[in-house]
Design goal:
With 337 residues, the protein is an alpha/beta fold. Strand 2, helix 2 (40-49) and strand 3 (54-56) form a beta-alpha-beta unit. The chain has a seven-stranded parallel beta sheet, with helices on both faces. It has a two-stranded parallel ribbon with strand order 7-10. 40% of the residues lie in helices and 17% in strands. It is globular and about 55 Å long. It has helices spanning 12-23, 40-49, 63-72, 88-93, 95-115, 150-167, 201-209, 237-252, 273-284, 308-314, 322-336; strands at 3-7, 27-31, 54-56, 76-81, 120-126, 172-178, 180-182, 216-219, 231-232, 234-236, 260-265, 271-272, 290-293. Helix 3 (63-72) runs parallel beside helix 5 (95-115). The structure holds UDP-4-deoxy-4-formamido-beta-L-arabinopyranose. UDP-4-deoxy-4-formamido-beta-L-arabinopyranose is lined by residues 86, 88, 126, 128, 180, 199-201, 204, 216-219, 230, 232, 273, 296, 299.
């Protein structure tokens, strides 16, 4: 049984990826510092798959802890690296926290991987690296725009660090650029657990619909889009998780063409904020109380993926729709009360 390490494996995308890795027959070791997740997620994973992953509570800024980890866990076939701070707004207020947590830890991890001969690496990146791309749909060759936030900059820098390291060593890496992950596992045993007031649209819609929030603010009704609200590519988190399995198998079977590959992971379809609200109301039969207010600083107008590279090279295709994502997110939200 091949051993895969998942950093940030108790987080939203990480936990769904752990489930799919176990479904695929991998042995999974989760590293998580529990700074933005809870240990109960381990139980949720086990309820779905019947297997409790190995778990190590490690802060990846602690280089000695990483060294000890690699002494304890040998024969690692690959690492999927989710662990990072990811709140765009917070990163503007606390840039050093983001550069330290997202970049120092990446460097320490890559260094110890090299020392221990671990060569397969998947990086959790984001469409945020593109900023407001000039053309839709966005291809992987779209240029990096100046990052809108320190968070976005850490994703751009992270990819450069990994690419340079792969070019200079035996590292084989894939960077997956997520568009907007939404939804939850159909079992409602795991899902998104935003801390405090949700920054992202879908959790805020869910908390408004269930009565935890008074009203959803729609940030901007005057964008140059068909209905004036901003457009994003909302990808079901289970489809996103499965993309990691496909990418890891590509590395393990040495089917990667170069030592550093990048893939956009989205549905290829854009949806406006108002379309999301309408789709949710249709699947849940629940009205959402919302008000259109001023634009949110730093937001882009439109982003949706050209997924042909992931389709053609990875052989990965999304199977679930926006409504599947919204229905599963709603089932998860209802399970939380
Ligand atoms: C989506 C749309 C908002 C909240 C960010 C990061 C990205 C990734 C996903 C980490 C936008 C609008 C939102 C609300 C709203 N994060 N909105 N009312 O900003 O596209 O992407 O989160 O990996 O890297 O950049 O996602 O869900 O915050 O916003 O109207 O209460 O919903 O303006 O148009 P975003 P989002």
């Amino acid at each position: 049984m091949k051993r895969i390490v998942v950093t940030g494996g108790l987080g939203f995308i990480g936990s769904h990826t752990v489930v799919e890795l176990q479904n695929e027959g991998f042995e999974v070791v989760v590293i998580d510092d529990l700074s933005n997740s809870s240990i109960e997620v381990l139980e949720g994973i086990a309820l779905i798959t019947g297997i409790t992953p190995f778990f190590e509570n490690i802060d990846l800024k602690d280089q000695n802890a990483i060294k000890s980890f690699f002494k304890k866990y040998t024969n690692i076939a690959g690492i999927i690296h989710f662990a990072a701070s990811k709140a765009v707004g917070e990163s503007v207020d606390k840039p050093l926290k983001y550069y330290h947590n997202n970049i120092s830890s990446l460097i320490y991890l890559l260094e110890e991987m090299a020392v221990n001969g671990v060569e397969n690496f998947i990086f959790s990146s984001s469409c945020t690296v593109y900023g407001q791309a000039d053309m839709m749909p966005i291809t992987e060759s779209a240029p990096f725009k100046t990052a809108e936030s320190p968070y976005g900059n850490t994703k751009q820098m992270g990819e450069s660090i990994i690419k340079d390291t792969a070019n200079a060593s035996n590292l084989n890496a894939v960077s997956l650029r997520y568009f907007n992950p939404i939804g939850a596992h159909e079992s409602a045993k795991i899902g998104e657990l935003p801390v405090g007031v949700p920054q992202n649209l879908i959790p805020y819609v869910m908390q408004t619909a269930i009565g935890l929030r008074e009203q959803l603010s729609v940030y901007g009704g005057d964008y140059p889009t068909f209905d004036g609200t901003a457009i994003r590519d909302y990808i079901h988190v289970v489809d996103l998780a499965k993309a990691h399995i496909v990418a890891m198998c590509r590395l393990l079977n040495e089917k990667n063409k170069t030592s550093f590959e990048v893939f956009n992971i989205g549905t290829g379809k854009g949806s406006s904020v108002l379309e999301v609200i309408q789709a949710f109301e249709e699947v849940s039969n629940q009205k959402v109380n919302y008000k259109i207010v001023d634009r949110r600083a730093g937001d882009i107008v439109e982003a949706y993926a050209d997924t042909s590279s992931a389709n053609n090279d990875l052989g990965w295709y999304p199977e679930l729709t926006l409504k599947d994502g919204l229905a599963s997110a709603w089932k998860w939200q209802q399970s939380l009360v």
